[in-house]
Amino acid sequence: DKEVRAIFLRLFAQLFQGYRSCLQLIRIHAEPVIHFHKAAFLGQRGLIENDFLTKVLNGMAFAGFVSERGPPFRTCDLFDELVAFEVERIKAEEGNPPKIIKHVRELAEQLFKNENPNPHIAFQKVLRPTEGSHLRVHILPFPRINECRVQELLQEGLARSQGAPPATRGDKKCVVPAGPPVGMFTSS
Predict the structure, then answer these.
(1) 179: which residues sit within 8 A by CB, 6+ positions away?
(2) In this structure, how many other beta carbons lie within 10 angstroms of the beta carbon of residue 44?
(3) Residue 28 and which of 7, 95, 144, 176 are 20 to 30 A apart at CA?
(4) How far apart are alpha carbons 156 and 119 in whole angstroms?
(5) How far apart are CA 188 and CA 186, in angstroms?
(6) What pTM value is reported for the model?
(7) Do the Cβ atoms of 34 and 25 come closer than 8 Å?
């Protein structure tokens, strides 16, 4: 599923390439409002008549996208890096399927690493109880928790986590890279 997600990530990075240059920060209200200038975005890309992109930009999902990704100072992620720095690579791979597949696999691997920063930690799946299991009489009541044992386990976990390697991506806020201007992308 990571490869499918990588394909969509790449698609939306291509679709919204240069969107940051069409963001406007309005400071009339107590809270600044971020507005996306749709006409400028479509005009600079030569896609004013494109019904699909117009409907995408008018949708609620895109409004949420702008409100989440509009602020100039926030935590950056893989999408921001794609939009800002991978423009030339995506353009160069346009007619070469093996290169596109290689890039998709690299993105999928990065998505996997971002979601599983500590691959050595395995999680057990807890099975859902069967229907009517709460009516069974033979089930013993939940045992009382031993507070001393809980504290010991917490101390052991803290000791282990202090020796663990740092996560692959921090949640440090930074200035979001603007990327190239919209005018670079005139193909539909």
Answers:
(1) 17, 18, 20, 21, 83, 84, 85, 87
(2) 19
(3) 176
(4) 20
(5) 6
(6) 0.60
(7) yes
> For residue 131, what are its two tokens?
């229907």
Q: Do the beta carbons of residue 14 and residue 56 sit within 8 Å?
A: no
Q: Are 66 and 36 in contact (CB under 8 A)?
A: yes
Mean pLDDT taken over the chain: 80
DSSP code for 50: -
Residues 6+ apart with CB under 8 A from 99: 92, 93
Enclosing H/E stretch for 75: strand 73-75
CA proximity to 72, closest of 110, 28, 27:
27
184 and 18 Cβ atoms separated by less than 8 Å: yes
Q: What pLDDT is recorded for position 165?
A: 61
Q: Report domain extents, the chain.
A: 1-117+172-183
Pair of tokens at residue 71: 């602020």
Q: How big is the chain, counted in residues?
A: 188
**Which single residue is written with the structure tokens 């052991």?**
156
Q: What pLDDT, on a 0 to 100 scale, did the predictor assign at position 122?
A: 60
Helices 78-85 + 2-15 axis angle, to 10: 50
How far is CA 116 from each of CA 21, 59, 74, 103, 121, rounded to the nearest angstrom?
A: 33, 32, 22, 20, 9
- φ, ψ at 124 (rounded to 5°): -90, 140
Task: Give me the residues paired with residue 175 across strands.
Answer: 73
